[in-house]
């Protein structure tokens, strides 16, 4: 009995170590704040640990944990905790550490993108982040968000339209097309 628990604990520890950067990135993009992202990842992993048998037996443990994260974020949003997006001062969102392997991390206007994402409504932000940053299919995104594929398409289209309307991002897109 003790060996089985030790094995599960070790398996979970390896899962956390391997997934931590990606979970933090997703949580940061959902919340717009490093500290809120850390809290979101921690509460997600707490839930995942208590359900580790189900998580590890799932066809896609990453999708299972991502869904737990989306649900936890949605619960916080529904409670109207105003911290979920608004920067506490005029400095804007806290920048995450750039990952050299991540093409988005090398973008000159990463700050403008993060600020624009922070202005999107929660469901649009979730759809855009999961579809374009996490590179999930519409079906995977719908499963993660707990909605239909049509809702994902609608939220994604609205979110992208709002992002295209941000002048700083429009300038970036134009400059990117010339290089």
From TrEMBL:
Residues 23-80 form the RNA polymerase sigma-70 region domain. InterPro entries: RNA_pol_sigma-70-like, RNA_pol_sigma-70_dom, RNA_pol_sigma-E_actinobac, RNA_pol_sigma70_r2, RNA_pol_sigma70_r4_t2, RNA_pol_sigma_r2, RNA_pol_sigma_r3/r4-like, WH-like_DNA-bd_sf. GO terms for biological process: DNA-templated transcription initiation. Keywords: DNA-binding, Sigma factor, Transcription, Transcription regulation. GO terms for molecular function: DNA binding; sigma factor activity. Pfam families: Sigma70_r2, Sigma70_r4_2. Residues 111-163 form the RNA polymerase sigma factor 70 region 4 type domain. Belongs to the sigma-70 factor family. ECF subfamily. NCBIfam families: SigE-fam_strep, sigma70-ECF. PANTHER family: ECF RNA POLYMERASE SIGMA FACTOR SIGM, RNA POLYMERASE ECF-TYPE SIGMA FACTO. This is SigE family RNA polymerase sigma factor. It comes from Streptomyces coelicoflavus.
């Amino acid at each position: 009995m003790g060996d089985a628990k030790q094995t599960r604990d070790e398996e979970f520890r390896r899962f956390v170590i391997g997934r931590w950067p990606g979970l933090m990135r997703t949580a940061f993009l959902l919340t717009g704040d490093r500290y809120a992202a850390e809290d979101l990842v921690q509460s997600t992993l707490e839930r995942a640990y208590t359900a580790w048998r189900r998580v590890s037996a799932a066809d896609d443990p990453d999708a299972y944990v991502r869904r737990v994260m989306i649900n936890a974020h949605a619960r916080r949003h529904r409670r109207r905790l105003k911290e979920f997006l608004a920067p506490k001062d005029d400095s804007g969102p806290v920048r995450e550490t750039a990952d050299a392997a991540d093409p988005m991390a090398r973008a000159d206007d990463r700050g403008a993108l993060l600020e624009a994402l922070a202005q999107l409504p929660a469901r649009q932000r979730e759809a855009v982040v999961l579809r374009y940053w996490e590179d999930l299919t519409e079906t995977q995104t719908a499963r993660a968000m707990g909605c239909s594929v049509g809702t994902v398409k609608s939220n994604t289209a609205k979110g992208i339209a709002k992002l295209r309307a941000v002048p700083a991002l429009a300038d970036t897109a134009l400059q990117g097309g010339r290089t």
